[in-house]
Amino acid sequence: MLPCLQSLSGSPLFSQLRRSAARSIVVSAPRHIQKPPAFNKETRFTVTEPPHPEWEYGKGLPEHEKVWKQEGDASKLTWDLTTMVSKQVHFLKDVYPLLTSAIIPRPVAFVSTLSSDGIPNLAPFRCVIMCNQVGHNPPMLSVSFALSRRRPKDTRENILATKEFTVNIISESFVEAANTTSVESPVDMNEWVLSGLTMEPSIDIKPSFVRESAVSFECKLYSWQDIFGGSERSEVTATFVLGEIKRVHARRSVMHEDGISLDAGKLRPISRLGGNTFGRLTEGFELPRVSWKAVKDKYELLERGYDEK
């Protein structure tokens, strides 16, 4: 779950969500589809030109995107989430499906931890985020936890106790195995056994990383923040964790020729959409970053016209 949503998704009613999984499936799944088509194993990632290569500065929405403009001009629905969350009204029915289907795609990755007693734990999170707002020096990852009244989150408790964890990117090749680790199981249950995935010893920390993952990060706890929710904002409903990346493991087979960056087409990462729907990366396009030196004169011309309106 995105950290910015934790104060909402961490509502006391959130603990009911897992018991109501079928309801969220109904919300997101098209009713007319009885069985989806077979997975297309031949699809490969390709790079195309951007959607509107003819676009010019100051033009806003392209002229031929008429349908998008018409839909934008129509009436809009609005949700007062502050009131809904404080009153604990329609959270499962409206708020959760709304947010998880709107803020997409969300990266999905494993987090591997050890308890203070040495019990291994492996769980998928949607999402683990590279903290660009913190910067790459030091390199950071964030993981967030929506808490339940029924029982503590094993991964959260392990990270706070041992201050170590690994983050492992999930690819198409083993997504079903990865999905099994989301089971809400007894504390002493070993998700590695159920998934059949392989523990690979880390170098700098004790928790293992996933051998099947093409990219893994060894992390140490940098800081954490409890988030208070509920109608009175008096109970801890979520926790936001910052981990400092100490070491990166990556397969040579998923690297670009430069040996530095990864090839998305070879990595084949998966993402989470709304409900039980996952996404795959099949196409991308490149847009170069805009240089102020290149657009300064154009901006000044546009600004004069804007002020005259």
TrEMBL record:
SMART domains, per the entry? Flavin_Reduct
Q: Where is the Flavin reductase like domain?
A: 101-263
Q: Which UniProt keywords apply?
A: Flavoprotein, FMN
Q: Look up keyword rRNA-binding and say if it applies.
A: no
Which superkingdom does the taxonomy of this entry point to? Eukaryota
Named cofactor requirement(s) = FMN
InterPro entries, per this entry?
Flavin_Rdtase-like_dom, Split_barrel_FMN-bd
Membrane-crossing residue ranges in chain numbering = none
Molecular function terms in GO for this entry? Answer: FMN binding
Family indicated by similarity: Belongs to the flavoredoxin family.
Q: Which protein are we looking at?
A: Flavin reductase like domain-containing protein
